[in-house]
Amino acid sequence: MALSPLFILYVVIVFSFLVTSVFMFRPKGNETVHIIFFWLGAALSLLVTFINATALPSTMTDHIIAAWCGLLFTAVGIIVRMAKGKTSSVANVLVMLSTVYGAAGYFLLS
Question: Is 88:80 a contact under the CB 8 Å cutoff?
Answer without folding.
Answer: yes
